[in-house]
Amino acid sequence: MAVAVDLRESLCRRIEELEPRIELIRDHSLYRPMRGPADWSGDPEHTRSAQEQEAFDTMVDSAEALFGIPDVDPDALARTVAQNPQLCWVHATAAGGGSQVKAAGLAREALDRIDFTTSAGVHGRTLTEFALFGLLAGAKGLPRLQEQQGRRHWSDRWEMKQLSQMVVLVVGLGGIGSEVAATVSALGATVIGTSRSGTPVPGVDRLIAVEDLPRTAPTVDAVVNTLPGTAATEKLLGEEFFAAMSEEAIVVNVGRGTVIDEEALVEALDAGRVGFAALDVFAVEPLPESSPLWGHPRVLVSPHTAALNSGEEERIAQLFAENARRLLDGEELVNLVDTIEFY
């Protein structure tokens, strides 16, 4: 197995301790250095010499499994898959690694031959905290407080919303969504969640089908999206959904930006159906300067940074070690990518 991104040596050794049966090949002189915690793609200004690139390609092409998509680059993944017929498993460091696999444009033969796994679940707590932050910022009128403070204006008192009295819709009840649901439920909120299976989820008071989202929209005070970006989820929260929302609802997105129709969201904000939106992800990233979301007084823009945490690297290394054990023991891997819908 080979490390294809800049994983620090102490964590490489930790993987070997957790699963001593593997040989973990790495060469720290060949990686694009991280600029901060969990900066898996590394410094874009860093370039390899022709000799270094050849050595890097030889390393990843010799392995049966990879920690990380090489340089977090779909084109590099496609090149490696084409040159490495023995490759059987690639672990993406992103929770949404399925989109990176899709972007590689791999043939069906390769998708069937290789298991792709993601790091879904390792960001559950950090993203839950951002979702909670967004819900509370909306409930307590953060934009109004900031505007008044900027003018040094002491207004009359007003009643703030209470999370414990709110109905929160969690769209997607995977690892992140389940943790969001449990957290806001513990704070007293009533939680509605979307589910394909209908299996009960702790903290969720009522399950609905995705098809019922527009019908449910008028009954909720806030919505938190945690869904991945797939063809099936693109603009799932769109014009019909936002047109049905109750007045001054709160929208939080910690899933993928493509799930929300941003134009429809802006219209709902302008119409007062949405009172506040806290967004960590966007349909196009970086968010274009021309986007009206930048300047909207009731939108909080976060540059896809809510999941970033110094402990992420260790959690991903532990997940990789567990999947390495499963691979060697013939068990199903955790977080397998669905190579039809790529999530």
Automatic annotation (TrEMBL):
Lineage per the UniProt record: Bacteria, Bacillati, Actinomycetota, Actinomycetes, Micrococcales
Protein's name according to its UniProt entry: 2-hydroxyacid dehydrogenase
Residue ranges crossing the lipid bilayer per the database entry: none
Source organism: Nesterenkonia cremea
Superkingdom to which the source organism belongs: Bacteria
Classification via CDD domains: 2-Hacid_dh_1
SUPFAM superfamilies the record matches: NAD(P)-binding Rossmann-fold domains
UniProtKB keywords: NAD, Oxidoreductase
Pfam families assigned: 2-Hacid_dh_C
ATP-binding as UniProt keyword: no
Segments forming domain D-isomer specific 2-hydroxyacid dehydrogenase NAD-binding: 135-306
GO MF annotation list: NAD binding; oxidoreductase activity
